[in-house]
Structures are given as structure tokens and as C-alpha cells.
Design goal:
By secondary structure, the protein is an alpha/beta fold. Helices cover about 25% and strands about 25% of the residues. It has helices at about 30-45, 60-65, 85-100, 110-125, 235-250, 255-260, 290-295, 325-339; strands at about 15-20, 25, 25-30, 50-55, 75-80, 105-110, 130-135, 135-140, 145-150, 155-160, 170, 190-195, 225-230, 250-255, 280-285, 300-305, 320-325. A seven-stranded parallel sheet has the order 7-11-6-1-4-5-12, with helices on both faces. Strands 14-13-15-16-17 form a five-stranded parallel sheet. It is globular, with a radius of gyration of 22 Å.
Length: about 350
């Protein structure tokens, strides 16, 4: 049941910044470390504590490991019914903990799991949720959370506030925020929570886990990305991009124009409406550099641009620019790499 929204609450009863961590089979999702890095900045600006919540079963060691990333407290929700992810089990146990402890800010990764449970948690506790945020700030005038996200297909950025309810909840896109640094020592504390959960409360049951037959695209963790756009002019052009990517051990990215043209699957899309990346090296081939694409890759350490148009916006942010036909330049690059 959804809680009443805009209820008469005392905002001062809510304290601290929370990160809802994510794990699969005991492995912490990298977005958790990204959110801790951003959460630490927000907590420091507010002068409040930073906590991370992780749900599962038999993963106390992994929960303690999170204390090495600058958090003040880790809440480990431990129950055998949480060993495998379920929407009901995770949403109920996390929502109950939020209602008990009353944080003022809650950050969730905009992953498949985060997008599943975040709106349900918000519904259970009666607060708002801003989805797919790319920027978070504290308003210096009243300490409200300013939550910025793309709107209208990425054509403008909207900043959203939650003035009457707490906590202020956001889902944050993976790859947007800088990861927290691990330290050898930890000063935080671990609190184990044993929630009351029954099988009747969980409406789904895991029957079988099927392995992924198709190779997943991992743009977020890629060190090198070779991306292509409308300048390819045809789907077959991605065969050339693949050859260069294979030589560099890189992942393949694409602009929205290339995806909309049906040349490559949407999982390869980089940009505001795709994946936000920050690799060591980003090679943009035939990408003009629309603002929506630049917003998704401009934090790359080194950017190389190949484009026929010397006035293409991509040249304004690249470290190295090559003006010319990518069908002439890329084969020369491949040949040089072979030598």
C-alpha cells in the first residue's frame, strides 16, 4: 500500500545521507562505490553522516568491506529470504529500515535492480523520487537536494526538489559519478539488521538462473571505447569499428543517431539517453558531437575525434582531432597497430 504523500512531517527528524548498495551473488555492483563517492560529498556539505545499506544473506564480509570507502555506517540487512533478489523482499526490508532510521537523502543506482525497487520504496514511505539523475547538489540557502536529470528526450536539463517530504530520493545513472577511493583502514561501524520477512510477503519465487548467452556490453567499466555515429553512413561500417576495437581491446559505443538508424543495438549507445562513460580513451568516429552525446562522454581522460567536418562540435572538447574520411583513417590506424 502506498503511504500518504505530502504528509505533515517534521523535516528536522530526518538526518544523514544514505546509499542503497547493490550486490549479486556477493559481488558489490560498482555503482555502489560511485554512489558512496557522491554521497560523501553531499554528507560533508550537510555536515551529516553517510551510511550505506546492503541487503542479502551470508555476505557480512562484503558489507564490512564497504566501510573502507569512507562511510560512517553500514547497515547489513541479513535474511535467508534475501539471498536472491526479489522486488518485494528488498523493497519491504529497505523501506522499513528507512522509516525506522529516517535519513534525509537516499541515493539508489539507476540499474535494473535500482529502477525496480526505488519507486516501490518511495511509494511505501510516501515520498517523491527523481529518476536517472546526472547531477546532485546541495542548495546552500536551505540545504535541499537539487536533483538534475535530462528531460524531453535529453533536450533540456530539469532540476527537481522535494520540499515537503523526506527522504529526498534519487536514482543515479551508473558511470556518472566518480568512485570513492578505498582506504586500508575504516572508522565506520557495521550494524546488522534482521528483518521480519515471511515467504508470504514475497510474491515471486526464483526457480532457475539462466546464463547470459550473448556477451554483455560493459561500457561503464571499459578503459577504451571506440564509438561511431551517423558519419558511418551504413550499418556495415561497424565492421570496421569492430576491427579497430579488437586491436585496442576496446568496447564498441555508438551515438543515438547510429542506434536510431538500426545499425547497432541500443546497449551500445553513449550519451544522456544512453550510457554515461568515463574511459581512459574515447575514440569518436563520425560523431559530430551533439550536446546529448557530449554529456555522456566528456569526462573521458583522453578523447580522439575523427570527422570530415572541421567545424564539428566534437573538436571543441577532444584532445586530438583528425579531420578526414574515417574509411581512410581507421584502416591506417589498424595497420599501424598491427606493426
Amino acid at each position: 500500500m502506498r503511504a500518504k504523500v505530502n504528509q505533515d512531517i517534521n523535516l528536522n527528524d530526518h538526518n544523514g545521507v544514505w546509499v542503497i548498495g547493490e550486490q549479486r551473488e556477493g559481488k558489490i555492483n560498482p555503482v555502489t562505490i560511485e554512489l558512496i563517492g557522491e554521497g560523501r560529498k553531499l554528507a560533508d556539505q550537510l555536515g551529516k553522516e553517510l551510511s550505506v545499506v546492503i541487503a542479502g544473506y551470508g555476505i557480512e564480509k562484503e558489507a564490512r568491506e564497504l566501510l573502507h570507502y569512507g562511510v560512517d555506517k553500514a547497515y547489513y540487512i541479513n535474511n535467508h529470504l534475501l539471498e536472491n533478489f526479489s522486488t518485494d523482499g528488498y523493497a519491504i526490508s529497505i523501506a522499513n529500515l528507512i522509516q525506522d532510521k529516517k535519513p534525509e537523502v537516499v541515493l539508489v543506482g539507476a540499474t535494473s535492480i535500482g529502477r525496480d525497487i526505488a519507486p516501490r520504496i518511495a511509494g511505501k514511505i510516501g515520498t517523491g523520487l527523481t529518476a536517472d539523475c546526472t547531477k546532485l547538489e546541495i542548495d546552500p540557502t536551505d540545504n535541499k537536494l537539487l536533483q538534475t536529470r535530462p528531460a524531453f528526450g535529453g533536450n533540456l536539463m530539469a532540476t527537481i526538489v522535494c520540499p515537503k517530504n523526506r527522504p529526498q530520493m534519487s536514482t543515479v545513472r551508473p558511470g556518472v559519478m566518480e568512485k570513492a577511493k578505498r582506504t586500508e583502514t575504516s572508522t565506520g561501524i557495521l550494524e546488522v539488521i534482521n528483518p521480519v520477512l515471511t515467504e508470504e510477503m514475497i510474491r515471486t519465487r526464483l526457480i532457475k538462473v539462466l546464463p547470459q548467452e550473448k556477451k554483455l556490453v560493459n561500457l561503464i567499466d571499459a578503459k577504451i571505447i571506440v564509438s561511431a555515429g551517423r558519419g558511418l553512413k551504413k550499418a556495415e561500417g561497424f565492421e570496421l569499428i569492430k576491427k579497430l576495437a579488437n586491436k585496442l581491446g576496446a568496447e564498441i559505443g555508438a551515438s543515438r543517431a547510429a542506434v536510431d538508424s538500426g545499425w547497432i543495438e541500443s546497449s551500445h549507445q553513449v550519451g544522456q539517453t544512453g550510457t554515461t562513460v568515463r574511459p581512459e580513451l574515447y575514440i569518436a568516429c563520425g560523431i559530430s558531437g551533439a550536446i546529448q552525446h557530449l554529456a555522456g562522454m566528456s569526462d573521458s581522460k583522453y578523447i580522439v575525434a575523427i570527422n570530415k567536418d572541421p567545424k564539428a562540435p566534437i573538436f571543441s572538447i577532444c584532445d586530438y582531432g583528425i579531420v578526414g574520411d574515417l574509411y581512410e583513417i581507421i584502416p591506417e590506424m589498424i595497420e599501424s597497430l598491427s606493426e
